[in-house]
């Protein structure tokens, strides 16, 4: 991939769109097989319209060595038998850090290094830092869309199998009031 020219990207934190825009990825309930604890409830949601769980809008910056691609993830609100809507989660096979910036709604960043789960509350204006070697998943803990900007090294890669094999340390459920409830989980 040839290096990209300097560019200005306009984004809307209330809608999750970027201009100019690169690829937009849509993950439906059926794309999250094996991730929610209640398999029967997940199957029922797939059968009942297979709703969109999240979308990722990318800028035109390519995923190539030396580049710093960006994307905005929008996770729609909801649960599967009380377990909050979430991203698949992944590990960077090329261990490199990443930053998330909260744009709208409320959510959290679940991190797991294979031994210790960590949680960062995310809201507009909060930067969550993901150190190299920490798998990461985002969770919408509110009742409106949760959006964040991600900036990551272009050669970091995305390993989804790691999360299926190792879990994320915790599951995150709707709790009392605004506080999520965490349950220990290992794959
Ligand atoms: C993010 C994630 C995005 C979607 O841009 O890729 O939020 O989550 P999954 O990739 O786990 O489906 C990021 O962490 N990029 O490295
Ligand atoms: Zn990442």
What does it look like?
The strands form five sheets. The protein has a six-stranded antiparallel beta sheet with strand order 3-4-5-13-8-11, with no helix packed on it. The chain has a three-stranded antiparallel beta sheet with strand order 10-9-12, with no helix packed on it. 8% of the residues lie in helices and 39% in strands. It is built from two helices and 15 strands. The model has no long low-confidence stretch (mean pLDDT 96). It has helices at 39-47, 161-166, and strands at residues 10-12, 17-19, 24-28, 52-58, 70-75, 79-80, 83-84, 98-104, 107-112, 117-122, 127-130, 135-140, 146-151, 169-173, 181-185. The chain is globular. Strand 9 (107-112) and strand 10 (117-122) form a beta hairpin. With 187 residues, the protein is mostly beta strands. The structure holds 5-phospho-D-arabinohydroxamic acid and zinc ion (ZN). Zinc ion binds next to loops.
Q: What does the secondary structure layout of this molecule look like, with pairings?
A:
Blueprint: E1 10-12, E2 17-19, E3 24-28, H1 39-47, E4 52-58, E5 70-75, E6 79-80, E7 83-84, E8 98-104, E9 107-112, E10 117-122, E11 127-130, E12 135-140, E13 146-151, H2 161-166, E14 169-173, E15 181-185
Antiparallel strand pairs: 1-2, 3-4, 4-5, 5-13, 6-7, 8-11, 8-13, 9-10, 9-12, 14-15
The structure holds 5-phospho-D-arabinohydroxamic acid and zinc ion (ZN).
